[in-house]
Specification:
Layout: H1 3-21, H2 26-30, H3 32-50, H4 66-73, H5 75-91, H6 100-125, H7 130-160, H8 165-171, H9 176-197, H10 207-210
Main location: membrane
InterPro entries: CbiM/NikMN
Keywords: Cell membrane, Membrane, Transmembrane, Transmembrane helix, Transport
Protein backbone atom coordinates (compact mmCIF):
# COMPACT_ATOMS: atom_id res chain seq x y z
CA UNK A 1 0.00 0.00 0.00
CA UNK A 2 1.13 3.52 -0.72
CA UNK A 3 1.22 6.29 1.89
CA UNK A 4 -1.98 7.83 0.51
CA UNK A 5 -3.73 4.48 0.63
CA UNK A 6 -2.65 3.97 4.24
CA UNK A 7 -3.84 7.45 5.19
CA UNK A 8 -7.10 6.80 3.38
CA UNK A 9 -7.58 3.51 5.23
CA UNK A 10 -6.98 5.16 8.61
CA UNK A 11 -9.25 8.12 7.86
CA UNK A 12 -12.03 5.89 6.54
CA UNK A 13 -11.81 3.55 9.54
CA UNK A 14 -12.10 6.49 11.94
CA UNK A 15 -14.92 8.08 9.96
CA UNK A 16 -16.94 4.88 9.71
CA UNK A 17 -16.39 4.11 13.41
CA UNK A 18 -17.77 7.54 14.36
CA UNK A 19 -20.81 7.05 12.14
CA UNK A 20 -21.49 3.56 13.50
CA UNK A 21 -21.10 4.80 17.08
CA UNK A 22 -23.74 7.48 16.48
CA UNK A 23 -26.24 5.21 14.70
CA UNK A 24 -29.18 3.66 16.52
CA UNK A 25 -29.12 0.04 15.34
CA UNK A 26 -32.24 -0.76 17.33
CA UNK A 27 -34.19 0.69 14.41
CA UNK A 28 -32.81 -1.97 12.07
CA UNK A 29 -33.71 -4.73 14.53
CA UNK A 30 -37.19 -3.56 15.50
CA UNK A 31 -38.54 -2.00 12.29
CA UNK A 32 -39.27 -4.70 9.70
CA UNK A 33 -40.26 -2.16 7.05
CA UNK A 34 -36.96 -0.33 7.50
CA UNK A 35 -35.08 -3.64 7.31
CA UNK A 36 -36.62 -4.25 3.88
CA UNK A 37 -35.73 -0.75 2.67
CA UNK A 38 -32.20 -0.93 3.99
CA UNK A 39 -31.29 -4.36 2.65
CA UNK A 40 -33.22 -3.82 -0.58
CA UNK A 41 -31.43 -0.55 -1.28
CA UNK A 42 -28.08 -2.10 -0.36
CA UNK A 43 -28.65 -5.00 -2.76
CA UNK A 44 -29.67 -2.59 -5.53
CA UNK A 45 -26.50 -0.53 -5.11
CA UNK A 46 -24.37 -3.68 -5.08
CA UNK A 47 -25.84 -4.80 -8.41
CA UNK A 48 -25.25 -1.37 -9.93
CA UNK A 49 -21.64 -1.27 -8.75
CA UNK A 50 -20.69 -4.59 -10.32
CA UNK A 51 -21.80 -3.41 -13.76
CA UNK A 52 -18.96 -1.19 -14.89
CA UNK A 53 -17.16 -0.22 -18.06
CA UNK A 54 -13.65 0.92 -18.90
CA UNK A 55 -10.65 0.14 -21.06
CA UNK A 56 -8.03 0.48 -18.30
CA UNK A 57 -8.65 -1.71 -15.23
CA UNK A 58 -8.05 1.07 -12.71
CA UNK A 59 -10.23 3.54 -14.62
CA UNK A 60 -13.58 1.80 -14.74
CA UNK A 61 -16.81 3.71 -14.15
CA UNK A 62 -20.30 2.77 -13.00
CA UNK A 63 -23.51 4.36 -11.78
CA UNK A 64 -23.21 5.23 -8.09
CA UNK A 65 -26.87 5.97 -7.15
CA UNK A 66 -25.74 7.35 -3.79
CA UNK A 67 -27.86 10.48 -4.10
CA UNK A 68 -31.00 8.35 -4.02
CA UNK A 69 -29.56 6.17 -1.26
CA UNK A 70 -28.91 9.21 0.93
CA UNK A 71 -32.40 10.62 0.35
CA UNK A 72 -34.06 7.26 1.02
CA UNK A 73 -32.12 6.15 4.10
CA UNK A 74 -30.68 9.35 5.55
CA UNK A 75 -27.02 10.25 5.99
CA UNK A 76 -25.76 7.67 8.51
CA UNK A 77 -27.68 4.68 7.19
CA UNK A 78 -26.67 5.54 3.61
CA UNK A 79 -23.01 5.56 4.69
CA UNK A 80 -23.40 2.18 6.39
CA UNK A 81 -25.27 0.71 3.42
CA UNK A 82 -22.75 1.92 0.84
CA UNK A 83 -19.88 0.76 3.07
CA UNK A 84 -21.33 -2.76 3.03
CA UNK A 85 -21.57 -2.55 -0.75
CA UNK A 86 -17.99 -1.31 -1.07
CA UNK A 87 -16.69 -4.14 1.10
CA UNK A 88 -18.77 -6.58 -0.92
CA UNK A 89 -17.50 -5.49 -4.35
CA UNK A 90 -13.96 -5.51 -2.95
CA UNK A 91 -14.29 -9.04 -1.59
CA UNK A 92 -15.61 -10.36 -4.92
CA UNK A 93 -12.72 -8.75 -6.78
CA UNK A 94 -14.15 -5.65 -8.46
CA UNK A 95 -11.98 -3.35 -6.32
CA UNK A 96 -8.57 -3.76 -4.71
CA UNK A 97 -8.27 -4.08 -0.93
CA UNK A 98 -5.45 -1.52 -1.00
CA UNK A 99 -7.96 1.01 -2.42
CA UNK A 100 -10.61 0.41 0.23
CA UNK A 101 -9.90 3.59 2.20
CA UNK A 102 -9.59 5.85 -0.83
CA UNK A 103 -12.74 4.39 -2.38
CA UNK A 104 -14.65 4.91 0.85
CA UNK A 105 -13.60 8.54 1.18
CA UNK A 106 -14.06 9.56 -2.45
CA UNK A 107 -16.68 7.08 -3.62
CA UNK A 108 -18.93 6.78 -0.57
CA UNK A 109 -18.49 9.55 2.01
CA UNK A 110 -18.05 12.38 -0.48
CA UNK A 111 -21.13 11.72 -2.68
CA UNK A 112 -23.43 11.13 0.28
CA UNK A 113 -22.10 14.19 2.15
CA UNK A 114 -22.52 16.42 -0.91
CA UNK A 115 -26.04 15.14 -1.50
CA UNK A 116 -27.07 15.65 2.10
CA UNK A 117 -25.49 19.10 2.22
CA UNK A 118 -27.48 20.14 -0.85
CA UNK A 119 -30.66 18.66 0.60
CA UNK A 120 -30.15 20.48 3.92
CA UNK A 121 -29.40 23.78 2.16
CA UNK A 122 -32.45 23.36 -0.08
CA UNK A 123 -34.73 22.50 2.85
CA UNK A 124 -33.79 25.64 4.76
CA UNK A 125 -33.24 28.12 1.93
CA UNK A 126 -35.53 27.25 -0.98
CA UNK A 127 -39.32 27.02 -1.35
CA UNK A 128 -40.58 23.63 -0.26
CA UNK A 129 -42.37 22.03 -3.17
CA UNK A 130 -42.16 18.75 -5.03
CA UNK A 131 -40.27 20.07 -8.06
CA UNK A 132 -37.60 21.74 -5.94
CA UNK A 133 -37.10 18.47 -4.07
CA UNK A 134 -36.83 16.37 -7.22
CA UNK A 135 -34.58 18.68 -9.21
CA UNK A 136 -32.46 20.35 -6.52
CA UNK A 137 -32.16 17.38 -4.14
CA UNK A 138 -32.13 14.44 -6.58
CA UNK A 139 -31.44 15.36 -10.22
CA UNK A 140 -28.66 17.92 -9.80
CA UNK A 141 -26.83 16.19 -6.91
CA UNK A 142 -26.75 13.02 -9.01
CA UNK A 143 -24.89 14.89 -11.74
CA UNK A 144 -22.65 16.76 -9.30
CA UNK A 145 -21.62 13.75 -7.23
CA UNK A 146 -20.67 11.46 -10.11
CA UNK A 147 -18.67 14.29 -11.70
CA UNK A 148 -16.88 15.10 -8.45
CA UNK A 149 -16.10 11.44 -7.82
CA UNK A 150 -14.47 11.03 -11.23
CA UNK A 151 -12.51 14.27 -10.92
CA UNK A 152 -11.28 13.49 -7.41
CA UNK A 153 -10.38 9.91 -8.31
CA UNK A 154 -8.57 11.22 -11.40
CA UNK A 155 -6.53 13.48 -9.12
CA UNK A 156 -5.72 10.53 -6.89
CA UNK A 157 -4.61 8.36 -9.82
CA UNK A 158 -2.39 11.18 -11.05
CA UNK A 159 -0.75 11.56 -7.64
CA UNK A 160 -0.47 7.96 -6.52
CA UNK A 161 -0.18 5.71 -9.58
CA UNK A 162 2.01 5.31 -12.64
CA UNK A 163 -0.82 6.24 -14.98
CA UNK A 164 -0.08 9.31 -17.07
CA UNK A 165 -2.51 12.21 -17.17
CA UNK A 166 -3.20 11.65 -20.88
CA UNK A 167 -4.36 8.09 -20.12
CA UNK A 168 -6.46 9.25 -17.14
CA UNK A 169 -8.02 12.10 -19.08
CA UNK A 170 -8.78 10.12 -22.25
CA UNK A 171 -10.09 7.00 -20.49
CA UNK A 172 -11.70 8.46 -17.37
CA UNK A 173 -12.28 12.20 -17.18
CA UNK A 174 -13.76 12.38 -20.68
CA UNK A 175 -16.50 9.98 -19.54
CA UNK A 176 -18.01 12.64 -17.27
CA UNK A 177 -20.37 14.07 -19.94
CA UNK A 178 -21.65 10.56 -20.68
CA UNK A 179 -22.33 9.72 -17.04
CA UNK A 180 -23.44 13.14 -15.81
CA UNK A 181 -26.91 13.25 -17.37
CA UNK A 182 -27.47 9.50 -17.02
CA UNK A 183 -26.73 9.57 -13.28
CA UNK A 184 -28.86 12.67 -12.83
CA UNK A 185 -31.79 11.15 -14.72
CA UNK A 186 -31.46 7.83 -12.89
CA UNK A 187 -31.62 9.49 -9.48
CA UNK A 188 -34.35 11.90 -10.52
CA UNK A 189 -36.46 9.07 -11.93
CA UNK A 190 -35.92 6.94 -8.82
CA UNK A 191 -36.97 9.67 -6.43
CA UNK A 192 -39.92 10.75 -8.58
CA UNK A 193 -41.24 7.18 -8.58
CA UNK A 194 -40.78 6.80 -4.84
CA UNK A 195 -42.26 10.11 -3.68
CA UNK A 196 -45.30 9.54 -5.91
CA UNK A 197 -45.94 5.88 -5.11
CA UNK A 198 -44.08 5.13 -1.85
CA UNK A 199 -43.34 8.43 -0.06
CA UNK A 200 -43.11 6.68 3.32
CA UNK A 201 -40.01 4.87 2.03
CA UNK A 202 -38.14 8.16 1.65
CA UNK A 203 -36.53 9.42 4.85
CA UNK A 204 -36.05 13.00 3.59
CA UNK A 205 -39.51 13.50 2.06
CA UNK A 206 -42.66 14.51 3.94
CA UNK A 207 -46.00 15.43 2.38
CA UNK A 208 -46.61 18.15 4.95
CA UNK A 209 -43.54 20.07 3.74
CA UNK A 210 -43.60 19.47 -0.02
CA UNK A 211 -47.22 18.80 -1.00
CA UNK A 212 -49.82 19.76 1.62
CA UNK A 213 -51.27 23.20 0.99
CA UNK A 214 -49.32 23.75 -2.24
Amino acid sequence: MTELQILGAIASAIGLAIIIKNTEFKQLVDDAAFQHRFFGATAAVFVLWIFRVGIVDELQVHFIWLTSLALILGFRWAIISSSIVLIGVTVVGYEKFSMLGVNWLLGTLMPISVTYAIFSWSFHKLPKNLFVYLFVCAFFPGAITVSLKILMMAGYFQLDTDLGWDVIFQNYVLLIPLLLFSEAFFNGFTMTSLVVHKPKWVYTFHDKFYIDGK
